[in-house]
Amino acid sequence: MATVERTFPVTGMTCASCVLHVEKALQATPGVESVNVNLATNTAQVGWDEAETDDRALQKAVQDAGYGLLITDEGEAMSTAESAQQERMLALRKRLVAAIILSVPLVVIGMFFMHAPWANGVMWVLSTPVALVFGRQFFINAWKQARHRTANMDTLVALSTGVAYAFSVFNVLYPSFWTSRGLEAHVYFEAAAVVITFILLGKFLEERAKAGTSSAIRKLMGLRPNTVLRVASDGAAQEVPIAEVNVDDILIVRPGESIAVDGVVVDGESYVDESMISGEPVPVAKSAGAALLAGTINQKGSLRMRAQRVGAATLLAQIVRTVQEAQGSKAPVQKLVDKIAAVFVPVVIGIAVVSALLWWLLGGEHAFTQGLMALVTVLVIACPCALGLATPTAIMAGMGKGAENGILIKDAESLERARRITAVVLDKTGTITEGRPEVQEAIGLEDTEAAAALLAIEARSEHPLAEAVVDHLRNAPVASTNGAANVIRFESLTGKGVKAEVSGTTWIVGNRRLLEENGIRIAGEWRDHERRWQEAARTVVWMADATTVRAALAIADRIKPSAVEAIARLKAEGITVYMQTGDARRTAQVVAAEVGITEFRSEVLPKDKAAFVAGLQQQGHVVAMVGDGINDSEALAKADVSIAMGKGSDIAMDVARMTLISTDLNALPRAIELSRRTVAVIRQNLFWAFVYNVIGIPIAAGALYPVNGFLLDPMIAGAAMALSSVSVVGNSLRLRWARLGK
Fold first, then answer.
1. What is the per-residue pLDDT across 90-102, written as a single tens digit (0 to 9) for each?
2. CATH of the domain at 230
3. pTM of this prediction?
4. Strand, helix or coil at 455?
């Protein structure tokens, strides 16, 4: 039996309960082995036995559940889903703007001119487009849910606003029905329109948060060129699409180009920037026999390579696939709200109908009137506006406060989970350290001849550490002495250093191996410095003339000033801190000791980072991953809370659900504190929204009438509904004045 796995765009999903319905429909299809429906990308990843079912059967199952499943080529699934999402965003924004424009005058008329003879007619005209045009999707979705005997937030919105609107239209057309019974014919057009506008706002915020999730995939794919230069059997080079590249093809990689496939160098020498895969800032020397990875960038030399892994087999493609599968936010808080709404809606309808029946049976002279009023009042007061605003308003306030503190938070799921973090995994380069090599210490530079020659040589060098040396020397007194014009016979020795002649003197700049090959002995004080620098995990650059060592520099990636304090704060909160790096063990050990980390792993690959995060999760930890490079994207996508450093890779920032804008690591403990406060506000909002309904619905049904004769007027119910929304928004705004720990 052959198992097929594909990703399909899904249409019509609006909330977490929709995800559950689609998953159940697919899981019930014979032959389906695995289902993962992603609300963030509006896609369903399905694995099935092709001997038992096919994509048409899957499509029918989803359609029968009230949703749509688009059958496209695997390569088109992502772009199709993105296009559909962009269309939804654009349409939703237009509906929201139009609804706001019509709702503002509605509220003004309802508050200040409600008794004017023209007020009811004007409000009817203004509210009709909002209710029946801009809010039509709520009614369509509610009808779909009803056909399949389910309910969600759309059902609640459609029911309450539909009843309020229909009741208002009846009162405008037949006011005598109430006036003949001694009652005033109130209208609730503004209540219906404002509720729809607020819910549209919540939906728009949700879609906007989801819109960026697929951009990380696009950028990862963008690391790979669309065409390559392939060497034909006759030796001629021809540019061909990447899809036509096969294993064992010989490709030419020109300076500055991205490498298209995984392979091995067969000819040429160069340095390759592998930071997007390894995360380490220093480009790697490549010569014949060296491995090359797709997505990395060739620097100044030209290379010929033999393709070994192409298409979906490359490391980059595997990273893309892992991120795509792990990415997405299902917002546990909103999921809870939708689940409650599925039960809440039929309960509210039941209470409304029962209260009307009881009034008609036991109400006496005005039984029908009071029963109808109770029915409408219950449905109006049960409006889900407060429920719909509880999460997005708190998130907006939390995001604003986070931005003030250098923290960007992308979704409710991260806010929900961050307060429960028990383990933080930190990437070393660019997260704990600055991410760029710097000269930490130097000896021999008081020798002005050697210093000036070193500056001249390194200014011409392509070596990755040369820039650090040049920056250091230009800030030194020798900066005014520049012999660049006198550099002759410049020879670059890949992986070792350079040889050059400056003003008649031959100089050697590079590692110990290069000096030894030229018969230059390192002894005495020089060896003592070398030993000390190596113990501190620093890279040593030597400079010598034809016979003698003249200068030496120790180069390392500087630790961020905020790292020690931030890590201490995390540990003080009971959070275990881990460090991962692709560097050698000695370097990792030194950095970990300096910042107070006892748990660290060295020489790790991207897949190792993700596996380590998964291992911690299996041990019961809630894991936060903090990184800045593409090499961290798998681990970021796998983590419970993913946090990117803002000065790092765009890919890491797109995958991560939180971004620390600055390089200050103290923003990390502040982000956790902000998460705790924001989630607390969300829960308070939801609590009061539900309490409001629990108390308000029985009163609206007439529960107090036997006790003190009190009956709730529908207009008061509408005001109470608005007040509940105001209280939720007001509670969320408290976050704006919160002070986060420094």
1. 888 899 999 999 9
2. 2.70.150.10
3. 0.58
4. helix
